[in-house]
């Protein structure tokens, strides 16, 4: 799965300008299209160095069986700036996507979509570049307010930022902490929330996120 991109920004101001420009392309009003393969993406960071490992795991949408996986290890060039994490992670993730033999129909990021100060988190950025439905599922909320959802699996509450619904706090397992779901591109808040729940039949985090996290850590360890 090849994604082309021009030269990456080198400064925070350039990166923010790119987010503002590309955010106009985001579509979170289109219902999720029929799909067969779902990919989880995650990045592991080396301690004490600039090395990162991007990982992609492709699952069958119905069975959640692993159909393909790929990794890419490289040095991060962009500095850590809150709200600009995509510029640290996207190069490795795009490189890993290029190694796949099974092309995913939907992308699930460990991060945020429109639940972002400029409505353009990692899931939005990747979705716009790939032209595919993309959502973010995060362990904590980055922006917004929400009421605590009920304790039962599947209970959800709107995540609201600056008066707009930007995602949902979703309880994926009974009495566990919620995860925070936000659409990135070509998917609605409601469809993103339903899909995140479908992908988490046993654990708090979706299988896409759990497996990509494990793979990224193994890849980083192998490259050490």
CATH topology annotation: archaeoglobus fulgidus dsm 4304 fold
Distance between the termini: 27 Å
Query: Mean pLDDT, rounded to whole units?
Result: 95
Number of domains: 1
CATH homologous superfamily identity: archaeoglobus fulgidus dsm 4304 superfamily
Number of strands: 8
The number of helical runs is 5
Give the strand content.
25-35%
Please identify the top-level CATH class: Alpha Beta
Question: Any overview of this molecule?
Answer:
This protein is of the alpha+beta class. The chain has one domain: archaeoglobus fulgidus dsm 4304 superfamily (archaeoglobus fulgidus dsm 4304 fold, 2-Layer Sandwich). 27% of the residues lie in helices and 26% in strands. It is built from 5 helices and 8 strands, in the order αβββαβαββββαα. The protein has helices at 12-23, 86-97, 122-130, 189-198, 207-223; strands at 37-45, 51-60, 66-75, 106-109, 134-138, 156-161, 164-170, 179-185. It has an 8-stranded mixed sheet, with helices on both faces. The longest helix is centred in the C-terminal third of the chain and has 17 residues, at 207-223. It is globular and about 40 Å long. The model has no long low-confidence stretch (mean pLDDT 95).
Condensed summary:
The chain is α+β, with helices and mostly antiparallel strands. The protein has five helices and eight strands, in the order αβββαβαββββαα.
Write the layout of secondary structure elements.
Layout: H1 12-23, E1 37-45, E2 51-60, E3 66-75, H2 86-97, E4 106-109, H3 122-130, E5 134-138, E6 156-161, E7 164-170, E8 179-185, H4 189-198, H5 207-223
Parallel strand pairs: 1-4, 4-5
Antiparallel strand pairs: 1-2, 2-3, 5-8, 6-7, 7-8
Helix pairs in contact: 2-3
